Protein 1
Amino acid sequence: MTQITNKQWGGRFSESMEGFILQLNESVSFDKRMAFEDIEGSIAHATMLGEQGILSVQDVTLIKQGLAQIKEEIANNEFVWSPELEDVHMNIEARLTDLIGIAGKRLHTGRSRNDQVATDIRLYLRKSIDEIRTQLKSLMTGIVGLAETETDTVMPGFTHLQSAQPVTFGHHLLAWFEMLKRDDGRLLDCRERLNYSPLGAAALAGTTYPINRQRSAELLGFTAACANSLDAVSDRDFAIELCSALSVIAMHLSRFSEELIIWNSVQFQFIDLPDRFCTGSSIMPQKKNPDIAELVRGKTGRVYGNLMAMLTIMKSQPLAYNKDNQEDKEPLFDSIDTVIDCLRAFAGMVPHIKAKREVMHQAAQSGFATATDLADYLVKRGVAFRDAHEIVGKTVAFAIEKNCALDELSLADLQAQSDVIEQDVFAVLTVEGSVSARNHFGGTAPEQVKQAVENAKTYVKSL
Ligand code: ARG
């Protein structure tokens, strides 16, 4: 009889998988990333089996010793991964049996790779979410720091990328803070929802041994055991949810990148990006390209793509486990790696952004950005808003003709447009006057931004 290469499931087989098909079927090349989670899950499972009298104390001791040694071997890069053993689970189990003999073969009692892999992924994602949140927090801290320095720096605020109304740069930055705050909340929600233990669901229907699922759940720090064995082994909605939360982060970072790229351009010159996050051109010596921001913007594509892949892998799968699910890992890992890298790059870059305050100020002044303030001024003196809008429109046209800013017009010129205008109009026509007047919760006034910075600091500390 032919020697069957896979000892763990080869009993009913008369020929071996080999060559290309073996390569196609294996997952150890990428699922070995979950090796420590696999070991952690096995220790909890064995401990529970021991406590329930399903395994002997001696077997459990041997299993724990063997797994501890395997962990060492993996950490020291001494472990030999073999594609013939298909995945991380069977590689570790085979090595355990090499090390401790028959006790190693008993570890799989009351368990299947189906509940095992579902457990490993959840443990891995829990750890990854914590790592992503750490990077997110560091970026949030960087944003608050810069916002604090730029509390009263005036810049044009935009709609349609047209100069709209003056805002403070600190206020603009804190808009990014709010987005990341929600991103963090999404990660936390996802973490809570995935923190349930599939262990004990076995292949799909549960197991005939007197197991204690709450106990293995508790040993692994899960909130509880999954309530339905079929669901526990089959759904990957939690992984899709994470990919979705990561897509939203990538989308935010991409928008942030886009602004940095625009502000850093020669045409805008609002900011100077630190040299170490930029590159030069091999042909044009004058250039300083915002490569890192562009790269982060570009990487959004793969993060969205991974989400689409995950949704499509899950779609149409009948209950319960199907091998389709082996395809979940590469996109999932890629999204995690990509977003961690992007957050790390931004967290390093943002605190060193130099605001070119005079340029920003000049830009805020030159785009008639205080036109709305003039309209509001007229309204406060009894002019109906629609009429005020019309009057200010004409005033802007007049200023364009005279090639000057609104606050450079003479009082007489302004009064020719509306007789309710008096000397105090100049206080609202300056960009400083404009931002200070928006002095309410969530507004752009420096006083509000100062308070928002304090709130943001408290929030970050609470994370
Ligand atoms: N490598 C597999 C996966 O990632 C592990 C589970 C395999 N189970 C099975 N019955 N073939 O999903």
Protein 2
Amino acid sequence: MTDAAAVAANDAATLTIRDNRTGSEYDVPITDGTIKAADLGKIRTAEDEPGLAVYDPGFVNTASCRSSVTYIDGEQGILEYRGYPIEQLAEKSSFLEVAYLLIKGQLPTKAEYDAWVHEITYHTFVHENVKGFMHGFRYDAHPMGMLMASVGALSTFYPDARNINDADNRHMQIVRMIAKMPTLGAWSFRHAQGKPFVYPDNDLGYTANFLSMLFKMSEQKFEADERLVRALDVLFILHADHEQNCSTNAVRSVGSSQVDPYSAVAAGVAALYGPLHGGANEAVLRMLKRIGKKENIPDFMQGVKDGNERLMGFGHRVYKNYDPRAKIIKKACDDVFEVTGVNPLLEIAQELEKIALEDEYFVKRKLYPNVDFYSGLIYEAFQFPPEMFTVLFAIGRTPGWLAQWLELVQDKEQKIARPKQIYTGDRTLDFVPASERWG
Ligand code: ACO
């Protein structure tokens, strides 16, 4: 298209709506492939009637913000953080560098990176009272429930965090949260195991320190195998952001009330706790264990195609192609199993994938492996119990939640989140006191 044609097409970028209730016509501008809901609100049958609204449960076709954090093209299977393809970041970067990229919007210089790593490393400790209240949880408390509560509780340790309009203050809380999530996550795990909490080791890198806080016993220093450290670091990178998913939307929605970021992130952890969001990899493991051996696969697949159950770890609301994260995780499986020995369920997973990618049922519906298909196998090889899987996801997602929160609080167009409803209940009933109703 020539420049002039592009300008003309842009000028014509409007939607003409005719309201058949009134016969009125409206021209609504189209910007970035969207119309403003407020423009629809001007369409009304009478001055004192409410304007037209859209009904969109689950926000399936509603843009809630402008964002420059993460780009996804589900048809092509593309995922980029701040414009950088996930494949390159997973191969060449580290989780803390990716966290910097998400938060600051650009890659760090050497000095910026060193300062960032230093800050995060020296904020990994939590107040001793945190230890006290973590001990107060029941012996079988779910670690994700403990994480959610303890992240929220951090707001009481840093009351200055409510000063969200101060850039330095925001930076401080972001550093604290990225630094302390592994400590809280590891301590939730140790509590469930009845083991003493391990303090952070500031000589170790971010992910190596997390492994030390999880698994260290009586040894002077816990040194995890470098290949495992790298694999977990890559998994954190893959989970670091995924645009306006359920938990990010929760962070933004709660953050829109201008509450402190610990409370907003606690809402994100709560959303991630749900089985439709963070829990699918656990379901994949259960499915693989139920199938048990390769010979049982044909029967299982028939059940899926008959609609009796789903092939867990396949399909995605956005990706209608191979989830780019699944490809990278598959490669990480090889690295991890080199250290831990092969998880026997891998053979079943690979066979399921092979069959599904050729089977017309899955091909026609564009069902490909998603991020959860292989991640549970890796986590199990690390000897994480399934309850820990979502905690790992939450640690990885924290920089993404914070980058989105930062964008929200600086966005002049944002308002407190407050959707409309279509009221379906009774109206203007006369209240009869209990003494008369039960008389
Ligand atoms: N196995 C078998 N059939 C499937 C699967 C599956 N995993 N996923 C979708 N289908 C079929 C549906 O039955 C439907 O078929 P139909 O058109 O004949 O009725 C068609 O594919 C479209 O499915 P929808 O449910 O409409 O797709 P939607 O986008 O709403 O769901 C979802 C996406 C929830 C991820 C779905 O694919 C699913 O349940 N997958 C298994 C669970 C899973 O792996 N979740 C993790 C997602 S990744 C994440 O959250 C981090």
Protein 3
Amino acid sequence: MAHIKRIGVLTGGGDAPGLNAVIRAVVKSACNLGVEVLGIEDSFDGLIEPGRTRVLGPKDVTGILRIGGTILGTTNRGNPFAYPLSTREGKVDYSARVVENFHKFGLDALVVIGGDGTLSIAHRLSKEGIPIVGVPKTIDNDIVGTVSCFGFDTAVSFATDAIDRLHTTAEAHHRVMLVEVMGRYAGWIALYAGVAGGADVILIPEIPFDLDLVAARLRERDKFGARFSIVVVAEGAVPVGGKVSIVAEGNAATAERLGGLSATCARQLEALTGKEARYVVLGHLQRGGTPTSHDRTLATRLGGKAVDCLLRGEFDVMVASQPPDIVTVPLDAVVGKQKRVPPDSDLIRTARAMGITFGDGIAAGC
Ligand code: F6P
């Protein structure tokens, strides 16, 4: 047993439904074992500046299980190793201050809830001597070592509902309706929502697409008597030999922002098929709202396991879902990697068997 009396908890990166459920699980399970919890605001920023922490007891987390966002706030711009402050010397390295404040705040260990960027910072801080357990978070579901991340199921459910609704106009007006979903460089959201929503075409980053082949499929559907089509476009999908579509360049402190692909595809598909094509970008709606029961349960299990690890003295690890268990994986085996959709996976093969095309010319049914 490690001597743990006071732990900190923080959330980093983009928000995802279920963050509050993890915070609640950490606070409740720690407090029930007599461990005090300090909530750290706005990711690692709360360890750089004083006055951005607060003690959290069970009363402070009552009622937050079903609420989206994070009561602690978050940022995806606050890497303490390369803080985005413009000085003549470039970025400022605040990591020593983070370590100093960690001790000044009387902390024995940290629970860090975040995606790959945040977990990479956690791993580096572990090497600086801070006992840390990471909790994987992302709607994109692209973290290696865990079968699923909380937030993913909520995002997929929302996108599926959006596709269901778009079917109405698509059918009534005999249109091609494109729906652009998030997911960065992985097609998990597009694939799961596309299959669940009965899409006709799914474009994902892992399978480069050819719009001529997509157009051919849409014409085929017309001939077959289905005069509408639903195309799900992952924001990170790429045409054969082309590049990812971005709306803002990245830099050392922020990642590039993806977007714009569905608009381009709608224009081109209209020209290629002569059919009216419209697009909808779901954007941050996928990250908002109340987490599904699946995400609440997963988040609660991960939060509880994180506290269990800290108390047992297992550090520099990420808690992970490997059904039916919640296990631990060394952070070293996780960070800097990406879990992408295997193009020959069962779900892709099933989707193809359903007649869904991925724009790569591999035969579809009707
Ligand atoms: O990683 C989660 C995610 O929502 C991605 O799907 C998306 O590309 C990105 O974050 C958007 O980030 P931001 O909210 O910073 O624009």
